[in-house]
Each structure stands twice: as C-alpha cells, then as structure tokens.
Amino acid sequence: MTIRETVEQAQAQTLAPYATLAQASKGRLREEAPCPIRTCFARDRDRIIHCNAFRRLKHKTQVFIAAEGDHFRERMTHTLEVTQIARTIARALRVNEDLTEAIALGHDLGHTPFGHTGERVLNHLASSGFAHNEQSLRVVDFLENNGLGLNLSAEVRDGILNHRTSRTPSTPEGHIVRLADKIAYINHDIQDAVRGGELSMEQLPKDCIDRLGERSSQRINAMVVDVIEHSEQGQIRMSEEMAQIMQRLRAFLFENLYFGGRAQRQSAKASALLEILYHHYMDQKGTMPQSFENIAEREGRERAVCDYIAGMSDVYATRHFEALLIPGYDNIK
Ligand code: MG
Description:
By secondary structure, this protein is mostly helical. The chain is built from 16 helices and no strands. Helix content is 62%, strand content 0%. It binds magnesium ion (MG). The site of magnesium ion (MG) has 5 residues, from helix 4.
C-alpha cells in the first residue's frame, strides 16, 4: 500500500460521512497517474501554491489601491487569511482539509489588478462580460503552464468557480471557503480601514461590535465558532443572527468604504488607467506578449485582452500605462 493509500484510508475512517474523500474524486480533465505520497487534493494545493498567478497575488490590491502602507492587505494576505479560517472550520467539522485548502488558495487567482474596480472595468468593456471567479477557473484550467493549465481535480475546480455569493458549490468544503472568504474580508477590511483613518470604530454599527467584540481576532472567532456550531450534516451555515450581523457589516462597508472616501478616489483613477490599456491592446495588434496574441488568434481579441489585463499586478499595469503615455518611459518589457 502506498503512503497516499494509507492517508486515504485514514481519512475515510476519521472524516465525517459527508466529507469529500480524495479516492471518490470525479478526477481531472486529463487523466494522470496518482502521486504515491499525496492525495489528489493535496497535490492540487501544491500546484496552486507553485504557480505564477499565485505569486502575482502579492502585488494585487485588496481594497486600498497601491497598498499605501506595509500593513494593508493585498490579495496574497487575503488569500492566506481565507485559507486559515477555512481550514479551522474544516478541521472542526471533520471534512477534507486538503480540498478546503486547495479551493481557498486558488479562489482569487483570476482577480484583476486594482481590486473589484478592475473587475468592473473589464466586465463593462468586454462584450461577453468578466467575472473574477470564472477567470480563476480559466487560470487553473488553461492560462497557467503555457496553456496546459494545472489540470486540477473536479472538486477543486468546482469550489473555485462557485466561491461567489450568487453561486452554489457542490461540496461542503466549497461552502466553507465561500463563508471563510466573507469572514476574512469583512474583518480585515474593517481593520485596514480603521488603520488607514478611513473609518473609526465609533462609526461601525454599535450592536454588531457589541455582539462580536472590539478586536479583529474576537470578531473572526465569533463568526468561526458560529459556523462550527450551526453547521450540521454537511450543511455549512451560520445562525440567522450572525448572518444578519455579517450582512449589515457588509452593507456598511459597501456604503462607507468600497464606494466612498479614498478607495473611491483611487478607484476612479484605476478605472481610467485600465480603460486606456484595454483600448490600446484591443486596437493595436501585436502589442501583447506572443502567448496572448496567440489566444487572440484562436479565441478573439477581447478574450485575450481580458486574460492579459486580469493577470497583471497593480505595479505591472501602472508601468505599462506609463510606458504608453509618458515620454521617456517606453523601455518596458
Ligand atoms: Mg476572496
């Protein structure tokens, strides 16, 4: 028996009956020999962490454009926080921690530069629209590895595609990541906003803070414990009370942070920058790296321009914008 088979057997004996088992996976798009040591989900997690798109998350904005301080989150730290929150819940509920981790690490790989501003710009400009969850799947299925993709398991791909609020993942592990994503961003965006002087604690809805706690760690803990206590039989959920608190905090952040203040001012500039880049690459053939020009030949220019821009970090997009518009800034590769 291989090490992997021993691990799979142990998981089948110790995980909850509704956990997703690696040996019951629906498999990969292209069949591959199994790893003698790691389960398919552990192997997928490793493929994600070693891919180029994962490293670029480091220089992509979460909310505060161009990370104006060392302690603000970017997509990488957001992703790591989601992963740890999701793993805590997965372990407590005895579902598959490797699958949970793989989905969480991959969920935002398709995110654009400049946070949701970038997503809105591409969605507005491209005739077939743009959504970061669909792009995350395109990254792992196709864009990574020179067009071969990472060839991940069906359950990881499903969790990545369906981590968005409007969609439904097919595994409890996918549901956990979807909730952990919200728990992470609501709490770290509050902390970053207070640190950045955008919001004060007094502005936050008082009854929500009274219920959850003054500190970020207390608030995360209250939400995580609530999910663990109210999920049953593989149905991952929060109490009605906690879901409402979360909804109110989310609405508060949309009104006061995402669509107001500094984030809003920076967002207007980021939109203008990305629109100029988009039209430039759309109008002038041969201006993108060859791999994207090849995609344009096969799948149309819009698709290729969206792939190219979505893959850019904030820094890369800004440098290319400078090279296009500022004299003397044209020596860029
Ligand atoms: Mg996310």
